[in-house]
Protein 1
Amino acid sequence: MSTNDNWVFGSGKARYVSRVWFCSGPGKGFDVLGVLSRALPAGLWEFKYRFRYYRDEKVFDSADRKSFTTATWPKEVEESAAVEMVAEVVGVMLTSGLECDELAVESDDRSRIIELLAEKRWMNLRFDLTGVMQ
């Protein structure tokens, strides 16, 4: 997994992924990918998201500029409340003309998470020769 993608799964520690959001819009020149997750067994809720500003048409190894941000909530916050708070942010993006797709993952099984992400046209996954996601 590339360094830029470690923010999705963390640094090898077990993570529960609740939701993944992807927002983009025709002619906007950027997209937003966000992941709501927590470290297991009971870490803080983290909403990690990145803006990707297009500089070329490449999916991988592009010159695109990316910025990463993280918001956190106490571990005592219920999952539904964390999802609702993120949904409010996504709602603001919708008012700016972006189209957003929400993927309910609700799993800590890394293989299942990758399987669900692979079904999305907006999620471009790349694996090395040993089958490890880059």
Protein 2
Amino acid sequence: MKRRDFLMAAPVACVPAVAMGAVSDAPADPMIALVARYIEIRRAWEDASYLDGEGNFDGPVTSTLEAEKDAKEAQLRALPIQTPEGFAAFVRYVHVDNYMGEETNVWPDMPGWAWEKIVGWVDPRILIGGAA
């Protein structure tokens, strides 16, 4: 399956898995909170670029936020996806990480490690019909 085909089908394939999942007392997938924090930092980093001296993302504020953003991204890279909700959060990270502000791009530039993480979680569950 080509990446483009998968990305077009993923929302449809994942919604039933998430919507039909049983409610449990299990703790939330840590991917959810980590992605939420990454997005907060990324948005602050983007907003900070409008401050005086920060336009090239090399001022003190944007540099500090970029270091925080990079640290969260390293955690995202290392953390395994554990649940359908965690998978949905990770796909959200990929989307947010590919766009600045309201910019849209039909050909996102996804790092290879992110694609491998998505396929690694999806493949045994959806592409070959395995159980989640």
